[in-house]
Amino acid sequence: MIVLEFKLKGKAEQYRIIDDMIRTAQFVRNKALRHWVDNQGVKLVDLYKQCAIMAKEFEWAGKLNSMARQASAERAIFAIQRFFSNCQAKKPGKKGYPQFKQHSRSVEYKTSGWKLSTDKRCLTFTDGFAAGTFRLLGSRDLHFSAPDEIKRIRVVRRADGYYAQFCINVERKEEPVSTGKIIGIDVGLNHFYTDSDGETVANPRYLRKSEKALKRLQKRVSRKKQDSKSRKKAINKLGRKHLKVSRQRKDFAIKTALCVVKSNDFVAYEDLQVRNMVKNHKLAKSISDAAWSQFAEWL
Question: Helix, strand or coil for residue 76?
């Protein structure tokens, strides 16, 4: 299973319709969660039935594709299952009791409610919201993927625009090349990591380098009048800067992990509990900026 992401190019009115789609998906998810709270022991099938009832009760909820409503209900049941699994595993700290969403940023479709153009460069939404056709901007190509291989599409709103993520059911095969090397690594704050051979990788500290710009943009937001257009623009600029920092951090973690994996046959590293380490308020920002968890996940 792989995920290919494209930016959606459309008109301002189309983007407003996507916002309505996202709010509707959030409403369905919250209503499904409320049904579980009021009726303990309900299953996913029961939530599917509630989705059909919601479509009849609320006209605007019926505009959302039926499978998209089911996908929103699945989000609620996944949160419930995660809570119970954490309780059974006796995970320390908070168990993650399902919460009602207030600021959702995505809506998910399954195999209906959308269609691709013949050249697979445009995406059209065909449900009741009628968002229209969007151009797909990206470096990847969908020509090698059959329509029945695309299992889900998620539309995500970010500070710099709207994106479509295609979940494609294909097997990805890579032939490993043996190097005969065994290595142990230890992450840190002075250096991103130090290996057992004494080699070090510098810590990029993307957040620290962008702090001045972030503080300046945050001041601009605080000086603007509440609910004004200028405040919304300032918030968007601040969000874009945060998004850039997070992308830099993710890109560094992925490329560094790939380099370690390709150059060694066996990698040993400590399973750090970063969640507990960030409770130290003197080091929390530096630890979060290092992105150890993200690096370990890709490793």
Answer: helix
Q: Which residues pair with 185 in a beta bridge?
A: 195, 269
Sign of CA dihedral 60, 65, 68, 69: positive
| Number of C-beta neighbours around residue 136 at 10 A | 22
Residue with token string 């797909």:
136
Asked whether 274 and 292 are in contact (CB, 8 A), the reply is: yes
State the CB neighbour count (10 A cutoff) for residue 36. Answer: 20
Give Cα 27 to chain centroid, integer Å. Answer: 19
Against a cut of 0.90, is the pTM above it? no
Spatial separation of the C-alpha atoms in residues 106 and 19, rounded to whole Å? 9
CA 260 to chain centre: 25
| DSSP state for residue 145 in the 8-state scheme | S
Tell me, what amino acid is at 81?
A: Q
- For the chain, the farthest-separated pair of C-alpha atoms sits apart, in whole angstroms, at 66
For residue 118, give the 3-state DSSP assignment: coil
Number of H helices, E strands in the chain: 10, 11
The tens digit of pLDDT for each residue in 16-66 reads 999 999 999 999 999 999 988 888 778 888 888 888 888 888 888 889 989
